[in-house]
Every structure is written in structure tokens, then in C-alpha cells.
Amino acid sequence: MSLRRASAGSPPTQAGGRDLRVAGVRHVYATQDGGEVHALDRIDLDVASGEFLCLVGPSGCGKTTLLQLLAGFLHPTEGAIEAGGVPVVKPGHERGVVFQHPSSLYPWLTVRRNVELGPRLRGVPRGARRARGEQELARVGLLEFADRAVYELSGGMQQRCQIARVLANDPDVMLMDEPFGALDALTREHLQGELRRIWQDTGRTVFFITHSVDEAVALASRVLVMSTRPGRIVLDERLPFSGSSAPLADLRASPAFVEACARVRAAIDSNAGPGRP
What we know:
Blueprint: E1 18-30, E2 36-48, E3 52-56, H1 63-71, E4 78-83, E5 86-87, E6 95-98, H2 111-121, H3 126-139, H4 155-168, E7 173-177, H5 185-202, E8 205-209, H6 213-219, E9 222-226, E10 233-238, H7 248-252, H8 255-270
Parallel strand pairs: 3-8, 3-9, 6-7, 7-8
Antiparallel strand pairs: 1-2, 1-4, 4-5, 9-10
């Protein structure tokens, strides 16, 4: 697969295809006391190749459940999910996951070997996976730390290592579950800029969960808002900011950005339910 899948910052086209499809998906969890939790209700969603989609909504509305269904970690109670036109029945390298915390990194492996793990498990020859690993480590600014243990890195550097590991495995889609949520404000802003640059450079499809309206509007080419549980999509809006080369601080100061944030917050507030954050 070509590393660059879409023009930098440009909206995806029909020729680029559809990377994800969610059709009539409901999901219900069984509880230990024999009850049920209705997490998602009739989700219909198409994600085109090259989109940067951010999903926001009140806590507990089913955002992470939807990501886990897309990753193949869970199976929907009802409905169907496809990736690249193929039914999702299990995890696959074409859907790479970046978790909120870097605990998925293996502490007994070096940074380099963590990043090369996916290609190694897929049988990629050593020379090819070494070259690809170094390419992605350079992309996230970690090449000089390649032979360090991951526990020697800061939290922000560990998250960059997670991103490099996903990219090295050549996914069609990056599924990101609040990857910057546990970081301090300055590190978070820096990594937002880095992720925007990576998306613009590679044209990967990104499905990104966040609780931050500001983060969603700054990064996404398309923002979805979910209602309180059972989660439903109540806003689907395309935004122009992700393709910009302007610094994020400048974008955040623009009236158009402030207005977009206000629309997204209003959609969250009006669908959060009584007493919900």
C-alpha cells in the first residue's frame, strides 16, 4: 500500500474509497446481576478514505464501545461493520489502535523493537521492518531514542512511540482512544500539532475519540457528536481547520474556530441528558 493515501489535508474523494462502514449497529452489555446496559443504538456511519474523524460526547455515551467494535475487539449485538468492504470479525493490522495510556507498549522491548513488533509478527523480513521502523521513529522524532527502554521515555514520548508502532504496521485506519487525555496541557498541544502533520503527510484515515471539543475542532476534518447512552449520532459536521498549515494557536484564535466549538458544545449539552457532564 502506498504510504501517502490522500493529498495532504484534502478531503477524501469517492475514488479514494470507504475505509469504514457501520450499518444499523446496536450494542448491549450484559451485567453481572443479569441486567443489560444499552451502549449504542442504531449507529449508521460511513468513513471515507483519508478522513480525520473526531468523536465527542458525554462520558459513558458509548464512544469507546464504538471504537472497540471497529477494532474487532467486540462484536455488535445487532448490525454490521466493514473495513475496506470486508466484514470486521476480529482485530487486524489494517486497523491500528493507539490507546489512551501507553501500557500496551512492552517494557522488556526497546523502543525500536516495540515499533517493529507488528511487521515482525506478520513475517516482514528483518531489513524491511528495520527500515520501516526507523522511518516512523524519525517521523515522530524518536529515532535517537530507538535503543532505549520504553520506560525511560516521558509520557508524551511513549504516546509518540505508540503512534510510530501503529504506522510501522501500515494500517489503513488509525483508531485512537483519547491518546492525549492523560498528558499535561503543553505536551498535549505539541502532540496535537504532530498528529495533524502526520495525517497531512500520510493521508491515513483517523478515527479519534476525545472529550475535548477544542481538540476535536482543531484536528478533525469531520466531527461527530454522540448523545447520552444509548449512544446515537446527533451531529455530523465537516470542518475546514485540519487541512490548514497555520499554527494551531492561530486557528484557535479565529472567530470561525470559536463558532465551530460553540456549535459542537451546544450539540453535546442538548443531548447529554439531565445531570450528565
